[in-house]
Amino acid sequence: MTDTYLITGGMGCIGAWILYHLTQDGKKAVNFDQSTDTHRLDWLMSKDEQSAITFIQGDLRDTNTVKSVVTDHNITHIIHLAALQVPMCRANPVLGAQVNVVGTVNIFEAAKDNDINHIAYASSIAVYGSADDYPAGLIAHDAPKLPRTLYGGYKVANESTATVYFNDYGISSTNLRPYTVYGVGRDQGLTSEPTKALVAVAKGEEYTITFGGKMQFHLASDVALQFILASEQPLGGAFGFNMGQPPQAVTEFADIVEDIEPSANIDVDDKPLPFPEGFDDTELKAHFDTVYETPLEDGIQQTLEHIRRLGDAI
Q: Percent of the chain scored above 70 by pLDDT?
């Protein structure tokens, strides 16, 4: 049977990069998403290339629909990304729980009904608390989960759900917890500002990033490749991994951009975000032979070149 990958939330930044890499490798991909907006995919691949993807518009809350998609398309691998983000969960907690928690249960149920024994899914550093909740240094993968948002609480629930599905039904899972994702397609969310700064630079415009401090930066393409690998290599349990990279200051991000493009004009506010500076990825590297970590300077260079190729399309 041909391997077929189900991606939920493929119209988002990471999902679009996953669909890109799967199609570049000649793999069959099915995108399940409530959105039909392809603008991020348009930045990564042509319409002809996108024609290799099966697009299904649907609601993750609908148990029967989710199960039918997995059955009807002979899905062999699942990468579950679809979720409502922090502001939407705060504005509508019930809807947030239905999409983020019940939707994830529906994915596990669909896997169980179709004898799929492994899932890769997105968690978040939002499962952890603020910096003052922990000792100094990188936050360990098994540090206490002390979420400060409903979104983070829902992600904790999903990690617990994954543990139960492994213990009760033998469905293994791997979740990844990235920090600040940047790159083409990262045009939404608070930490999208570094990417928006790159778009401004490519267009010859000034930009102010409204936060400072240190954080870990992950190139969107790297995160996508790590999710694909996580879906293909079951580890025999319910695992969750922080994604690494050395924490770097937002001012350093701006300095690198200005070194690459001397005409760039990026200001950085000195107020840090209320998150720890970084998270320990020792366990990720212990479990996977390949960890995708493009150095920040190289990732910025690649992203600027990609944005320039797109021109007015972005």
A: 100
